[in-house]
Specification:
Elements lengths: L3 H12 L10 E6 L2 E4 L35 H4 L10 E4 L3 E6 L10 E7 L20 E5 L5 E3 L12 E3 H7 L3 E5 L7 E11 L10 E12 L60 E2 L3 E4 L3 E4 L20
Parallel strand pairs: 2-12, 3-11
Antiparallel strand pairs: 1-2, 1-4, 4-9, 5-6, 5-10, 7-8, 10-11, 13-14
The structure holds 2-acetamido-2-deoxy-beta-D-glucopyranose (NAG) (3 copies) and copper (II) ion.
């Protein structure tokens, strides 16, 4: 057996040929060909004020580790903070999230969650003024089957013989489609798209979670779907079999961490995880009084008028 340092070096060379350049962020989202901007956390990036991607302090394009699964950083990445704008989408549409590249070696699941902002304190401006700790999440996609055993897969820097959801994402030009459930009630929501990279997950605290959030303004849903109420700080445990495992030690299956996908959610199958074409810049909206929207018009978010009635008496 090689000494630990050599093992680590070998694992590094095999699995993460571009580790120093690797990591990523959610660059943008496409909805029916309309493009909305994510947030680029790297220093000196010209971030679009109309972006719908949450601000984060992950200036290295990096990740949150299992030691921080109960820390608010797991909600929407390091010091995550909501932007003013929301991307308009109709229930039943697909939101196509695109990462700024994804390294082959960063194998793992692609998980998607939605949290409604209506009814929470600060919801006058949609998700913008809501305390992220108050968000309650519903898992709408866990990228099943996540891990398939395919001859010839993973030979380009992944894990030989394994095809992961992350490989499907890479093949679709680093993107993933999330179906917005038909049964969602209209209103403001945060979409949390997370890739968990497992290349170092054989080490304690070695998994890498990349949880990135975007704001959506959902229209047209019938509200028939029952939402779950999970807190992001309760999704995962450091010793979950889906986050503390050795992907090169002859895996025979993979257990997806976190809650199960809610009834009424319709994940997009691998066969339909394809490249989405940009047609035009979308027009994001800013939410007013919790119930109306106006097109984003630059600068800061308009100050929302506080509502006279109580916070939870939305009808
Ligand atoms: C958890 O996150 C905080 C804030 O980013 C960081 O300072 C701390 O080192 C992290 N803790 C661990 C154990 O990774
Ligand atoms: C992949 O995505 C990039 C960035 O959005 C885009 O410029 C490029 O045209 C896309 N490639 C294909 C083949 O769609
Ligand atoms: C993971 O499994 C591989 C293959 O069995 C082994 O070489 C490596 O030492 C293991 N890593 C850890 C940290 O146990
Ligand atoms: Cu990385």
């Amino acid at each position: 057996m090689p000494p630990p340092l050599l093992t680590t070096l070998l694992a590094f060379l095999t699995l993460t040929p571009t580790a120093t350049l690797a990591h990523s962020h959610l660059a943008h989202i496409l909805i029916n060909g309309q493009l909305y901007h994510g947030f680029d956390p790297r220093p000196n990036q010209p971030n679009d004020p109309s972006r719908v991607g949450w601000w984060t302090a992950a200036t290295d394009d990096g990740f949150v580790t299992p030691a921080n699964y109960t820390h608010p950083d797991i909600i929407c990445h390091k010091s995550g903070a909501s932007p003013a704008a929301h991307a308009p989408v109709r229930a039943g549409d697909r939101v196509h999230v695109q990462w700024n590249g994804w390294p082959m070696g960063h194998v793992g699941p692609v998980l998607s969650y939605l949290a409604g902002c209506a009814g929470l304190e600060g919801d006058e401006a949609g998700c913008t003024g809501v305390d992220k700790a108050a968000l309650r999440w519903t898992k709408v996609d866990d990228s099943q089957p996540v891990l398939e055993f395919v001859e010839g897969a993973g030979i380009n820097g992944g894990v030989p013989g394994q095809r992961w959801a992350s490989d499907v994402l890479i093949a679709a030009n680093n993107s993933w489609q999330v179906a917005i459930p038909d049964g969602l009630a209209p209103g403001p929501y945060v979409l949390r798209n997370e890739v968990i990279a497992l290349h170092y997950a054989a080490e304690e605290d070695g998994a890498q979670n990349y949880p990135l959030c975007v704001n959506l303004w959902v229209e047209g849903g019938d509200g028939g779907m029952e939402l779950d109420g999970f807190e992001a700080t309760e999704f995962y445990r450091e010793d979950d079999p889906g986050v503390w495992l050795n992907v090169t030690a002859g895996l025979s299956s993979y257990v997806v961490p976190g809650p199960t996908v809610a009834v009424g959610a319709t994940p997009v199958p691998y066969a339909e995880q394809t490249i989405s074409l940009f047609e035009a810049e979308g027009t994001p909206v800013v939410v007013l009084r919790g119930t109306e929207t106006v097109p984003f018009s630059g600068g800061a978010a308009p100050t929302a008028e506080p509502r006279a009635r109580g916070r939870y008496d939305r009808n």
